[in-house]
Amino acid sequence: IDYRKILSNSVNKKLNIEDYKKLLNLSEKKRDYKNSIKYLEKIISLGENNISIKYKIASYSSIVAKNTKSFASVKYIKKALKNYKSILREDNFHLKSLTALAKLHALLPSFLGGDKNKSKEYAKRIMKIDQIQANLILGMINEIENKKNDAKNNYIKAIKIFYKQSKNQNNIDNLLLYELIDISVRFKIINSNTLLLLDEYNSYKGVNLIQLEWVYFRFAQVYLFLNNLKEAKYYAKKSLDLNSNFKKSKEIINIIN
Questions:
Q1: Between vectors from CA 34 to CA 32 and to CA 40, what angle results, nearest 5°?
Q2: Contact 69, 101 (CB under 8 A)
């Protein structure tokens, strides 16, 4: 997409920082994160550099790296690590950067910076700030190391803490909500309280970084587990409306039928 044509009739016009912010907004709406990163870096080069911009570059780089099936992903992994670490030099307790680094070190191979011990160190730091995220990270590490029971115990702790917390916690976003829903389904930690997670997700007003067909598929799985076939079918169909080839949602429809 040529965003400059959308922005202005003159593609040869020299752009200022406000123009790049408009281009950034357009690319974010399209989930075109490669261009979003480019525009964010342009904004930095024009003199605006803060934690919010660095965090966007890091998180978008992580998304691009995950979706890039080639050696080019290495470039974005390095960009993500660099920016998360830069943020922590400014704010040693920036929760989202600590969490992202813990997950990257847990998931990446060693030649790209993966290090389970570093991941555990970050989890210990996070435990002082946010016990939900810390238990999710420890659960993920245990899951990677095939310690399924230990992982499930960590996940149960995370979910129980979430239910006790106020709805007005600033660190609750849709990524966290989706992760809690995802582990609830995968580890069969589902009961009537799980519907609170779905309600929270549906009422979230921020930017959605998760593909909605996956969100609705997970919703369908929760309702299927609770034997609410009407709602399970409704969300499976919503998932298929977004991606008619989504086999997992088709399977739920077939099970119900």
A1: 100
A2: no
Q: Can you give the chain as a three-state secondary structure string?
A: CCHHHHHCCCCCCCCCHHHHHHHHHHHHHCCCHHHHHHHHHHHHHCCCCCHHHHHHHHHHHHHHHHHCCCCCHHHHHHHHHHHHHHHHHHCCCCHHHHHHHHHHHHHCCHHHCCCHHHHHHHHHHHHCCCHHHHHHHHHHHHHHCCCHHHHHHHHHHHHHHHHHCCCCCCCCCHHHHHHHHHHHHHCCCCCCCHHHHHHHHHHCCCCCCCCHHHHHHHHHHHHHHCCCHHHHHHHHHHHHHHCCCCHHHHHHHHHHC
Q: Express each pLDDT in 92-137 by its tens digit.
A: 999 999 999 999 999 888 888 889 999 999 999 999 999 999 999 9
What is the distance between the alpha carbons of residues 36 and 24, in angstroms, rounded to a whole number? 5
Distance of CA 242 to the CA centre of its chain: 19
CA distance linking residue 24 with residue 101, whole number of Å: 25
Query: pTM (2 decimals)?
Result: 0.81
Selected residue with higher pLDDT from 10 and 17: 17
Lookup: tokens for 57: 């570059």
CA 173/CA 253 separation, integer angstroms = 29
Could you read off the pLDDT of 30-50 as tens digits, one per residue? 889 999 999 999 999 999 999
Backbone angles phi, psi at 187, to 5 degrees: -105, 10
